[in-house]
Write a structure and sequence with these properties.
Blueprint (H helix, E strand, L loop, with lengths): L18 H25 L8 H10 L17 H14 L1 H6 L11 H12 L5 E4 L15 E5 L2 E12 L6 E7 L12 E7 L9 E5 L10 E12 L6 H11 L11 H7 L2 H28 L1 E2 L2 E2 L4 H30 L8 H27 L10 H11 L6 H12 L7
Parallel strand pairs: 1-4
Antiparallel strand pairs: 2-3, 3-7, 4-5, 6-7, 8-9
Helix pairs in contact: 1-3, 3-8, 8-9, 8-10, 8-11, 9-10, 10-11, 10-12
């Protein structure tokens, strides 16, 4: 008879706990175990797609509209609730935990388009994809070379983009491009953002995509994109309304680019995605811990469950401690993000980088340890451990590598001196 499994998931700590948060966490947990995990176990190993029905149910539960204001049909909640739901979904399938972020792209749109698309995004009926990285521009956003040239009535995009997940199925692609020529002495100048609307299942005119052969993050495709005179109307330039307002007030015609604020807004917009990645990392690690606790009480060697051996018990204890320490920091950072609780000693950028770094590094360690606990069985697709392990490895790379996170934190604590 199997022994009772102690639930390794502690409740939301008292300073952060509310009835509403407990309810949304429990709802996400039940949905994950009933719907997301079975889908992942069936589809991930064969690189199947996230089912449309699963996405529809997520929309009905409000998962796409967690942080969307209520006036746009969202739940009007905060980053804290967003992190709670993300952790639960990632416990089943990281790709499903990731797709809820695709509705947030509507928040970056100018007011007129936001009014139109935000309510759809809150229901999961308008989802975006993000095209920033290039062959020679990953974490170094200032190296972007894709061009946006002004023409009558809009712009044309030309260049290459990489690592654009969901580019085929999304309703729009957010593209980071240059509206002025690359200047090695002022690399941040002229970087702007454009929204390219399209039909799901197709690429926009002037854009083609080749799927990347990934080892994980299945359930959707990731693409290399080529833009060849891809036309975007004037209002596809994010910041176009601000530019028009300046033109109207000054009475003077403004330059035909977006005021060079694209770099700053792109860089500053990474804090919440990094909290999101921390939550995904914690969900993957927790999945590995829960599966390992169950496995070591069933698997016997030398006439005893391997959970009776001290070396195994200590592995489990360390995994649990590592997960909980990262979760505690994630709660703190998410709460600070919602409350704006920062002073001169801290910043959202630094805290976001810290929690993303620690959680992603932890997730790789914990999922690898879980695979070791499972032995040869862990190195098969018969158990989901290998999926957690493959996906956890990606968390150290996307939304900024671990090395970039350390650079961001160190620059906050010890600003670099100017080059002489």
């Amino acid at each position: 008879m199997p022994r009772q499994i102690v639930d390794p998931r502690p409740p939301i700590p008292a300073p952060y706990r509310t009835d509403e948060r407990v309810a949304i966490q429990e709802m996400a947990r039940e949905f994950t175990m009933d719907k997301v995990l079975p889908a992942a176990n069936e589809l991930d190993s064969e690189q199947g797609m996230i089912p449309d029905e699963l996405r529809r149910e997520m929309g009905e539960l409000g998962f796409f509209g967690i942080t969307v204001p209520e006036k746009y049909d969202g739940l009007g909640l905060g980053v804290f609730e967003y992190a709670l739901v993300t952790e639960e979904l990632a416990r089943g399938w990281m790709s499903v935990a990731s797709i809820i972020a695709r509705s947030g792209m509507a928040a970056t749109l100018d007011r007129a388009q936001r009014e139109k698309y935000y309510p759809l995004a809150a229901r999961g009926e308008w989802l975006g994809s993000f095209a920033m990285s290039e062959p020679d521009a990953g974490s170094d956003i200032a190296s972007v070379r894709t061009r946006a040239d002004k023409v009558d009535g809009g712009w044309v995009l030309n260049g290459q983009k990489m690592w654009c997940t969901f580019a085929d199925q999304s309703d729009a692609i957010l593209v980071v491009a240059r509206t002025t020529p690359y200047d090695p002495d002022n690399r941040h100048k002229g970087i702007s953002r454009f929204i390219v609307h399209k039909r799901p299942g197709e690429f926009p005119d002037g854009c083609t995509g080749n799927p990347i052969r990934k080892i994980g993050y299945h359930g959707w495709h990731t693409f290399d994109l080529s833009f060849d005179d891809c036309f975007v109307p004037d209002d596809g330039l994010i910041g176009y309304e601000r530019q028009q307002a300046v033109t109207n007030q000054s009475g003077k015609k403004q330059p035909n680019h977006a005021g060079n604020d694209g770099f700053i807004r792109t860089a500053k917009g990474m804090t919440i995605p990094r909290i999101h990645t921390a939550a995904r990392s914690i969900g993957l690690a927790r999945a590995s811990l829960e599966d390992s606790i169950a496995y070591v009480q069933q698997r016997e060697q030398f006439g005893r469950p391997i959970g009776d051996f001290q070396v195994t018990r200590f592995k489990i204890a360390k995994m649990a401690a590592d997960i909980e320490s990262c979760r505690a920091l994630m709660y703190q950072v998410a709460a600070n993000s919602d409350m704006g609780g920062y002073d001169n000693a801290t910043s959202p950028d630094m805290e976001g980088a810290m929690v993303k770094y620690l959680a992603s590094e932890m997730s790789e360690r914990v999922t690898s340890e879980a695979l070791q606990i499972h032995g040869g069985a862990g190195y098969t697709t018969d158990f989901p451990i290998e999926r957690y392990w493959r996906d956890a490895r990606l968390t150290k790379i996307f939304e900024g590598t671990s090395e970039i996170m350390l650079r961001l934190v160190s620059d906050c604590l010890l600003p670099p001196t100017p080059h002489r």
